[in-house]
Specification:
alpha+beta; ATP Synthase, domain 1; five-stranded mixed sheet; five-stranded antiparallel sheet; 29% helix
């Protein structure tokens, strides 16, 4: 019989985009990018809703760390369930770095253009954050790919 004090508590995570259920599983913890910085969540967390900004989300399953890129959205947190609703999510090994760099270049150009409206600059700022997160995640994955789950 297993000693319950040695079993790590887990929570269910569901990451949903308009196109798919990107990820669903049981994890020990997750850290998500929010307007106020990185936000860590563990089982038993108080109920909360937070806004998510483009960046890298990280979670741990059975001692293994995994990450993915996430765009804007929100997370609904309860004690043992975290539902993340976002516009896009992507595993680092699936990121096309050339495409991400091209997106960064286009967004930077649009942001700096004197003919861009304030709304276009706001959209470009978001695109810059997402492209930078994609590039950072892909570089991190390449550097540490042997540590990732299959």
């Amino acid at each position: 019989m297993a000693d319950n004090t040695t079993i790590k508590k887990k929570m269910t995570i569901e990451v949903v985009t308009p196109y798919e259920v990107f990820f669903e599983g049981r994890v020990e913890s997750i850290v998500i990018p929010t307007l106020d910085g990185q936000f860590g969540i563990m089982p038993g967390h108080s109920p909360l809703v937070v806004a998510i900004t483009p960046g890298i989300a990280r979670f741990e399953v059975d001692g293994h760390k995994r990450s993915f890129v996430i765009s804007e959205g929100f997370a609904e947190i309860s004690q043992y369930v975290v539902i993340i609703v976002c516009n896009a999510a992507e595993w680092p090994e699936r990121i096309d770095e050339k495409r991400a760099q091209d997106a960064l270049d286009r967004a930077t150009s649009k942001f700096r253009s004197s003919s861009s409206t304030e709304q276009q600059r706001l959209y470009a700022r978001h695109a810059i954050r997402r492209a930078k997160a994609r590039l950072a995640s892909a570089a991190e994955w390449k550097k540490h790919k042997d540590d990732h789950l299959d």
